[in-house]
Amino acid sequence: MRDPFKSTPYSPENVYYIGELLFRLPYRSRGLGRRLLTSMESHIRSLGSFHVIVCATVERPLDHPCRRHEYIPINNFLDRTGFVRLDGITTHFTWMEIDGARHNHTMQFWMKDLSQPCPQLNSPPQN
Ligand SMILES: CC(C)(COP(=O)(O)OP(=O)(O)OC[C@H]1O[C@@H](n2cnc3c(N)ncnc32)[C@H](O)[C@@H]1OP(=O)(O)O)[C@@H](O)C(=O)NCCC(=O)NCCS
Asked: With contact defined as beta carbons under 8 Å apart, do 105 and 92 qualify?
């Protein structure tokens, strides 16, 4: 987790990593993800030592058999909530897939710069 950031201006001590955001299907696309992330961002800022928030997304084709048919690319959500893709900054995670085998995955990092003002919970989307 730390090594990919050695080539960036960000010290790992100032990087807050979000491992997962996951809602059950009926709760998706109702604005809850944006609200949760705004609350988390506010808390992370209050801790005082973090300059950026990062998360990582798995790199695989849209038609990959492990993607569910209802999948919406997570890039949409990250774009809408102010994250930018850190091209070339990746790592590898291994986990068991629904086929029962362990696979090694390339994970692409995304970043949100906390030097920008915090969005307000009741404010409309910015783009
Ligand atoms: C990704 C996830 C947490 C987003 O939460 P959400 O409550 O569905 O998102 P919101 O309703 O707040 O939508 C915010 C924006 O993201 C986009 N979006 C909406 N649903 C989305 C979805 N299911 N996947 C990706 N992007 C989505 C929309 O463009 C929306 O922007 P808009 O309001 O300007 O139209 C949720 O959809 C989810 O659990 N998805 C499956 C799990 C997943 O992929 N997790 C991420 C891996 S870490």
From this structure: yes
Give the C-alpha separation, 47 to 2, whole Å: 20
Least Cα distance to 57 among 3, 105, 4, 109 occurs for: 109
Nearest-CA residue for ligand 1 atom 30 is 77
Question: pTM to 2 decimals?
Answer: 0.85
- As for ligand 1, residues whose beta carbon falls within 6 Å of it are 20-23, 28-34, 72, 74, 76-77, 80, 125
The separation between CA 16 and the C-alpha centre of its own chain, rounded to angstroms, equals 11
Q: Name the residue at shortest CA distance from atom 37 of ligand 1.
A: 28
The predicted pLDDT at position 67 comes to 73
118 belongs to a structural domain? no
pLDDT-based confidence at 71, cuts 50/70/90? confident
Residue 18 belongs to a domain: yes
Ramachandran angles phi, psi of 7, nearest 5°: -90, 10
Q: Which secondary-structure segment (H or E) carries 90?
A: strand 84-96
In a domain, 67, yes or no: yes
Q: Which range marks the domain in which residue 52 is found?
A: 3-113
Which single residue is written with the structure tokens 């919406």?
72
